Amino acid sequence: MNDSPKIILITGASSGIGAATAQRLAAAGHHVVLGARRLDRLAALTATIRAGGGSAEHLALDVTNQESVHSFVQEAHRRHGRVDVLVNNAGVMPLSRLDALRVDEWDQMIDVNLRGTLHGIAAVLPLMKAQRSGHVINVSSTLGHDVVPSSAVYSATKFAVKALSEGLRKEQQDIRVTVISPSFTESELNTLGGDPDTMAWVRTMADKLNMPASSVADAIAYVIDQPVAIDVNEVIIRPLVEA
Ligand code: NDP
């Protein structure tokens, strides 16, 4: 039994890191509110968590739509009277070289990875300020620290997530802000879009290097369960063989 269970909202909870994080945090006794577009996935995960004795619910969420993110957060707040943690995790990674001019996919990465994170911050900031407490966890990437050929736009969105997080942390005294920067992690991230040759290379690397999503979930659980006066600013996590 967790003696300080929190109300934790997770975006992109229908697969990969978000789903693993939901399971990890629910197992630690927190209540998780799952958001994503694939409601069938969320319903199955909610049922699994509840069957294991955890506490979970899910709501439809499209992070590219400010109204959708606002409704997601407001509904969780209406039901529980507070929002302790927002995990801004939803993301997409259709990698390609800039000269491939896959401009629609650039826009998609900006809309989900950057605008989606901003929408999450906009939705929780007034509530957390009023509570005089809260924790915003933004999932960036090791590609938020480094740029490789084909990662320019994805890296730009993830560098931006780091910048936003730094700004939020420096502006707010009562709100904890953490950046989680994983490297190759088991998920569905490399299955959608991008240049086919680049993505095939990413999948080959992922087969060699992938960390389990539960390792990233463990890092998120660690930062949440620190004493409230302790703010872990960033966790960078990679497979040892890559280092
Ligand atoms: P997955 O593809 O497995 O999960 C991505 C999640 O984002 C899904 O739940 C998806 O849900 C959700 N999502 C995508 N678009 C939207 C949208 N418009 N609105 C709401 N949810 C959306 O990948 P990961 O678990 O790997 O990705 C999670 C985060 O981790 C991302 O930010 C990613 O950039 C980051 N990351 C991943 C790494 C890896 O190697 N896997 C490494 C470094 C960082 P749905 O489609 O149902 O809406």
UniProtKB/TrEMBL annotation:
Residue ranges annotated for the Ketoreductase domain, each copy included: 6-187
SUPFAM superfamilies linked to this entry: NAD(P)-binding Rossmann-fold domains
Keywords: Oxidoreductase
GO molecular function: oxidoreductase activity, acting on the CH-OH group of donors, NAD or NADP as acceptor
Any Pfam family the entry gives: adh_short
UniProt superkingdom: Bacteria
PANTHER family found in the cross-reference section: DEHYDROGENASE/REDUCTASE SDR FAMILY MEMBER 11 (PTHR43115), DEHYDROGENASE_REDUCTASE SDR FAMILY MEMBER 11 (PTHR43115:SF4)
Family: Belongs to the short-chain dehydrogenases/reductases (SDR) family.
Protein name: NADP-dependent 3-hydroxy acid dehydrogenase YdfG
Annotated source species: Streptosporangium subroseum
